């Protein structure tokens, strides 16, 4: 397990392991010392093409040049049409045991199953920034002993459309404009708002995107959802309808909008880096998998909610999430392309005990995933790639095709056969057999009537948020619609908002300088679901969090070390920020400088402190850093005369969440840990919001 920590900012002292690590014994990854061609021919030189004289033309016979350039010319494959930008990790899932399904990886208590998880943004291209406002993908491949099960979910529990036939419409609207191909990786543009303002079944998902869920702090602090209702079947054949949930052990936390925007510039790889760093540091990201369980009766509804409608949730207060097991991500991919890029998920990868439902969005997905991989991965044999290969025996009768790497034995890849002793044979007892379900009705292109309610659940979502979260939603709508050029689109979306909440519509209208829509009936009283809010009152774990300490050679470095010890114990990290790179202090008390005031920016820290004895006057970069920390509602503090630097930078002395102490003692550390565990000091946000909205 490569848990060794790379020294921050220095080059890795050994190259990444290759091939064998990924579980492929026959991997042809570079494993020797001498450079060869793809045919294994040793090469004396790879920098000069073969020429007729030093100043002459290049010769056609230079097979090394041709092989090198040809291979390079074909290095790229089509990026995913959606979810192109992603980051992934290997891990393990440990089951708590359950009677609700016969799927062995869930049913057997303590059973461990290897997994590969890929997180992604939806709209941006492969090279786009991580922290854009968007839905995040959360796709998990469980390599179970009964075959691969893929849970291809998102960090939001609802979707823009109720029927998969509209997927090309919503994606065409969300992707950059076809003429200029801008903007990249975001929905703040006319075509998106044109579509969703006309197509109001998208409203619930739009509200989730405009909330803090659209800008997660980290992949590690995101919830995940299977979105659709699935059918779980137990050993006796009894079935239940369920919705899958991933609950992050680190808590559900987000960035604030300005942070997300700054991060997109100063560290476009913010989430990718965070995931890899956390795993490398041994702060393994963890989630609990759980299900909301509803009876599988003929109504396919629960508490009046249509379970086949993917724009609706079942509030957790009505159906609590029952834990099934724990996922731990503990190994970074060895090669981005081989693993993260070539992994192929498919909602149709199911195992006995887990079945689909008639949700029309899910039904279309069952077609799309296999289909898209044929183009993306160049043919039908992508299941043989190491990252896609099941970890259980595979005895199919699929043969030949592009990129066939298996050397199949036998002469009878057909059934029935006698020449290969009738094998491989089917297994009627243990094979995957969906529970019989009755299907009847007229052939028609139409939705159930219950699909027509587009506003009640967005109202429940919005009204269940705390005031500060609601203010963020208002800001997000104001920002995104403010980026549209067409007045008619903005006005139409304001009318949609008025259906959900007239107060919200009024605030956004004011921000846009447009009249408040009148005479639109607002959704009446709704049952709230407090579980939808992310704001926590009890501090959560701080593993993987980053604390910056501004210091110089005159600073109290022993206090700094005491603090580091306490934070490291809890899995958090302390980074020294000094006026220049290199070291501060001398001899045995020397400290490596990880950031300079020039390279440090608020986004990468969860708290910033100033050490006692830090003599340098707060220059403009330090002032920006400390003020951004304060404005982004994160903990800031100082001990000893470091307080002067803090106040000199304009951080209010008695401001909420501003930590002052004489020394970096236990009380100071405890206060810091609490502040980190609460994630934000939202009392400050009220002040900011009063100015902004
Ligand atoms: Fe999808 C990729 C999640 C609806 C068609 N989807 C993709 C990925 C995730 C989701 C996480 C990236 C997987 C990876 O990391 O490789 N998609 C969802 C969710 C949906 C959803 C949660 C609704 C509940 N998707 C959806 C529909 C269709 C697709 C309705 C088409 C009818 N999705 C695709 C795709 C992709 C994909 C075109 C692109 C790349 C890929 O599959 O492998 O097939």
From TrEMBL:
Q: Which cofactor does it need?
A: heme
Q: What class of enzyme is it?
A: oxidoreductase
Among InterPro entries, the record links this protein to: Catalase, Catalase_AS, Catalase_clade2, Catalase_clade2_helical, Catalase_core, Catalase_haem_BS, Catalase_immune_responsive, Catalase_large_C
Q: Which PROSITE patterns match?
A: CATALASE_1, CATALASE_2, CATALASE_3
Q: Per UniProt, what is one Pfam family of this protein? A: Catalase
**Catalyzes what?**
2 H2O2 = O2 + 2 H2O
Q: Which residues form the Catalase core domain?
A: 36-423
| Molecular function in Gene Ontology | catalase activity
Q: Per its UniProt entry, which superkingdom is the organism in?
A: Bacteria
Q: Where is the composition biased (Polar residues)?
A: 19-39
Residue numbers spanned by region Disordered:
1-55
Annotated EC: 1.11.1.6
**Which keywords fit this entry according to its UniProt record?**
Heme, Hydrogen peroxide, Iron, Metal-binding, Oxidoreductase, Peroxidase
Q: Which SUPFAM superfamilies match?
A: Class I glutamine amidotransferase-like (SSF52317), Heme-dependent catalase-like (SSF56634)
Q: Does the keyword Heme apply?
A: yes
Report the sequence similarity comment from the record: Belongs to the catalase family. HPII subfamily.
Task of the protein: Decomposes hydrogen peroxide into water and oxygen; serves to protect cells from the toxic effects of hydrogen peroxide.
Any idea what this protein is called?
Catalase
Organism this protein belongs to? Kineosporia corallincola
